[in-house]
Amino acid sequence: MRLVFLGAPGSGKGTQADILKERLSLTKLSTGDLLRAETEKQSPLGKKAAEYMNQGKLVPDDIMIDILKKKVTEFEKEGIGYILDGFPRTLPQARALDAMLEKIEAPLDAAILIDVPEEELLRRLTSRWTCRNCGATPSFPGGKPDDAICPNCGSKDLYQREDDTRETILKRFDVYRKNTYPLIDYYEKNGLLHRISGEGEIEEITQRIETVLKKM
Ligand code: AMP
User: Fold this and answer.
1) Which atom of ligand 1 lies at the shortest distance from residue 68's CA?
2) How far is CA 35 from CA 42, 67, 70, 135, 181, in A?
3) Domains in the chain, please, with CATH?
4) Fewer CB atoms near the end CB (10 Å): N or C, the chain?
5) Which residue, by CA, sits nearest to atom 11 of ligand 1?
6) What are the catalytic residues?
C-alpha cells in the first residue's frame, strides 16, 4: 500500500502516520523528521535545510525530490508499503512522485487529507513540545510545567521546535495555503483524495482513516 498524508502543520498527520504504519505494517517517510535529523547532525543538507525551515519556508523542490526518489527506491526494492508524511508539499513534488511511480507501475493507493480548522491548529502548535528521546509531541496548553515528562517514554528531554513559534507558524500556514492547498484539488481530480476530520481524540481519527482504507 502506498499512501500520502496531507494536512496543515499541526493537523496530526505525523502522529496518525506513526500509529497506522504499525497497524498496517508499513514504513513511513517523514520529510520533516528526516530534515530535522540532518540539521541535528549539522550535515551539509541539514545546514541548508535549516535556513528555510527556521523561517517557515519550504526547502526547494529539487532537494526534496532527490531525497524522495532515494527513499522510495529503497522501499520499493524491499517490497514494503509506505506512508509519505509531509511529501508532496507542492505540485511539482506531486508530479515528480507520480512520474516516478508510473515508471515502475506502482501507483499511489490514496491521499489522506487530515482537516483541522486554523484556530485549532494554532492552539495546538503553540503548545506543542517534542521529546528528544522518542519523538512524541506532547501538548501543554497552559504552558509546560518545569517538571514535565514525555507521556510516551517518561523522558524529561522536551524541546520546542524552532519553527513552532507564533510568527513562524503563521508563515507556515501561508506557505501551506499557497503551495500545498492545490494538491487537494490535484488528488481529488485523480480520484485519490479522502478527507478525514482531524478533530477529536487521536484514536477516533485513526479509526476514521482505517474505515476509509478498509473500503478501498
Ligand atoms: P514538517 O515536520 O512536515 O512540518 O516539516 C517541517 C519543515 O520541513 C517544513 O516547514 C519545511 O521547511 C520542511 N519540509 C518538510 N517536508 C518538505 C517538503 N516535502 N518540501 C519542502 N519542504 C519540506
Assistant:
1) 19
2) 10, 10, 14, 14, 22
3) 2-26+81-214 (3.40.50.300)
4) C
5) 58
6) 13, 89, 128, 161, 172
* pTM: predicted TM-score of the whole model, two decimal places: 0.88
Nearest to 52 by CA among 136, 175, 184, 166: 175
What are the 10-residue block averages of pLDDT along the chain, 216 residues in total?
96 94 96 93 95 93 95 94 97 97 94 94 90 92 92 95 86 94 96 96 96 93
Residue 52 near ligand 1, beta carbon < 6 Å: yes
Q: What whole-number distance in Å separates Cα of residue 7 and Cα of residue 115?
A: 6
Give me the amino acid identity at 144: K
Q: Quick one: CA dihedral 175, 177, 179, 180, positive or negative?
A: positive
Residue-level pLDDT at 18: 94
Which residue is listed with cell 541539514?
46
Of 144, 151, 184, 188, nearest in space to 11 by CA? 184
- CA 189 to centroid of ligand 1, rounded, Å: 24
Q: How far is CA 121 from CA 33, 51, 133, 177, in A?
A: 19, 24, 24, 13
What are the cell numbers at 7?
494536512
